Amino acid sequence: MSEQKKKGQIFVLLDKLTLIGMAISFILILQPFWQHGFKVGFFSIIFFTIGQIIFSHLLPKDKS
C-alpha cells in the first residue's frame, strides 16, 4: 500500500470521526439528564466542527 493511499485513508477516518463526534455533541446538548451536558456538548461541537472543516479539505480527490 502506498504512503499516499495510507494518508488518504487516515483523513477519511478522521473525517468520519468528526461527523460522529458532532452527532454525539448534538445529543449531549439536547439531553435533559446531565446538568453540564449543554456546556460539554457546546464546546465539543465547536471542536468537532473545526476538525470537520480541516479534515474535509484534506480528503483525497477522486480521480474519476
List keywords for this structure.
single chain; 64 residues; mainly alpha; 2 helices
Question: Which bin fits the share of residues in helices?
Answer: over 70%
The domain tally reads 1
Q: Report the β-strand fraction as a percent range.
A: under 5%
> Based on DSSP secondary structure assignment, what is the total number of beta strands?
0
Please tell me what the overall shape is. elongated
- How would a crystallographer describe the biggest sheet? none
Structural class: mainly alpha
Ranges where pLDDT stays below 50 over 5 or more residues in a row are none
Q: Compute the number of helices.
A: 2
Quick take:
The chain is mainly α. The chain has helices at residues 3-30, 37-57.
Description:
The chain is mainly α. It has 2 helices and no strands. It has one domain (3-57). Helices cover 77% and strands 0% of the residues. Helix 1 runs antiparallel to helix 2 (37-57).
Topology:
Blueprint: H1 3-30, H2 37-57
Helix pairs in contact: 1-2
